[in-house]
Amino acid sequence: MRRLCPACRRSHEPDRAEQSLLENGNEAGRAPPLFTASGCEACAFTGYQGRTGIFELLLIIDDEARRLIHDRASEADLRSTRGAAA
User: Which residue, among 30, 48, 29, has the nearest Cα to 38 in the 3D structure?
Assistant: First the structure.
């Protein structure tokens, strides 16, 4: 995932649609800060600089999960096995 350039990123107030999406499920009832980047020399006027990964972690790998991973099972099969063990 691309990261906003730290040199040119600026916070902005969310519009109504963004506010509604961000408040949904937020216990505090208010949206987290939002940022946008306009571009600068540091990011070659793209507004982005660098990348970060987004990962999902499978916490328990038991014998059944290990077998499914080895057999290249689908994500749905892995999830159903994890749900049965919990």
Answer: 48
Q: Which secondary structure element, helix H or strand E, spans residue 79, and what is its range?
A: helix 75-85
Threshold 0.70, pTM exceeds: no
pLDDT at 83: 52
Helix (H) or strand (E) holding 35: strand 34-37
pLDDT tens-place string over residues 46-85: 999 999 999 877 667 888 888 999 999 998 888 887 655 4
Token pair in block for residue 42: 């540091």
Residues 3 and 49: beta-carbon distance below 8 Å? yes
For residues 50 and 54, give the distance between their C-alpha atoms in angstroms, rounded to a whole number: 14
